[in-house]
């Protein structure tokens, strides 16, 4: 049993003040097994901590101010230093999403919810080669990029910009495809009447343009069907995101 009169053993209240935590937090960390007290009085249940535990307690407090989840903190304290890199990536991803949301709000403030540059077209039949894959919604961009890579390694007589083919319904698992017109087609996109709009800017903001297009379609009494077509008129490898141009076509 530790010497309760030792200068290295602190009751929970004093230890909490030393480590800039609350007694409630320390009790919670004990319940989770994150930071166990060095000694618990068997009669009173009172918790005591040692001086050697201050670094762990201060580390937990620091990481909680950074919104690191408690399970990740437990892994870090157990010696898994890769947790910090994972947390950095998580925070970076969240910042990217928030910046994209901010840009979308700025765009709405500038353009409003309505768009007047929507046109009805008669899409011609297109003879295409295709590469397909299935993915979750959050993986559409990466999966489409993989399809494009496979497509351009097999098609050598490309005739026009790449085309993304996507389902109308946003289900948990989506079938996406990359297509390109070619003199050696494997499939045909049928001719169809369609509504078309041009999206200018990053792909992350394309949902705003889709909103305007689908609102216009329904307000004008049309019914979308088939696969949505995105034609990439600029090359993302050489074009800044703010200058990307994408034609969205919805068959009617």
Automatic annotation (TrEMBL):
Residue span(s) of domain HTH merR-type: 9-79
Gene3D superfamilies attached to this UniProt entry: 1.10.1660.10, Regulatory factor, effector binding domain (3.20.80.10)
UniProt keywords, alphabetically: DNA-binding
Pfam families with a match to the protein in the record: GyrI-like (PF06445), MerR_1 (PF13411)
Entry-linked InterPro entries: AraC_E-bd, DNA-bd_dom_put_sf, GyrI-like, MerR-type_HTH_dom, MerR_fam, Reg_factor_effector_dom_sf
Source species, domain of life: Bacteria
UniProt cross-references to PANTHER family, sorted A to Z: MERR FAMILY REGULATORY PROTEIN, REDOX-CYCLING DRUG-SENSING TRANSCRIPTIONAL ACTIVATOR SOXR
Name of the featured protein: MerR family transcriptional regulator
Provenance organism: Allokutzneria multivorans
């Amino acid at each position: 049993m530790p010497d309760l009169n030792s200068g290295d053993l602190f009751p929970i209240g004093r230890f909490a003040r030393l480590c800039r935590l609350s007694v409630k937090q320390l009790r919670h960390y004990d319940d989770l097994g994150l930071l166990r007290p060095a000694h618990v009085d068997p009669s009173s249940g009172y918790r005591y901590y040692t001086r050697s535990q201050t670094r762990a307690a201060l580390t937990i407090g620091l990481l909680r101010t950074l919104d690191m989840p408690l399970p990740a903190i437990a892994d870090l304290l157990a010696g898994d230093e890769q947790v910090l890199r994972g947390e950095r990536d998580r925070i970076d991803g969240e910042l990217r999403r928030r910046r994209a949301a901010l840009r979308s709000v700025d765009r709405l403030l500038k353009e409003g919810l309505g768009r007047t540059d929507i046109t009805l077209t008669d899409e011609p039949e297109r003879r295409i080669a295709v590469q397909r894959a299935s993915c979750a919604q959050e993986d559409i961009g990466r999966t489409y990029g993989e399809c494009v890579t496979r497509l351009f390694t097999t098609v050598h007589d490309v005739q026009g910009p790449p085309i993304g083919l996507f389902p109308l319904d946003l289900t948990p698992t989506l079938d996406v495809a990359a297509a390109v017109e070619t003199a050696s087609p494997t499939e045909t996109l049928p001719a169809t009447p369609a509504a078309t709009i041009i999206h200018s800017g990053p792909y992350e903001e394309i949902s705003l343009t889709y909103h305007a297009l689908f609102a216009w379609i329904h307000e004008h009494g049309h019914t979308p069907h088939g696969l949505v077509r995105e034609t990439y008129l600029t090359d993302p490898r050489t074009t800044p995101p703010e200058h990307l141009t994408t034609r969205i076509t919805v068959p009617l």
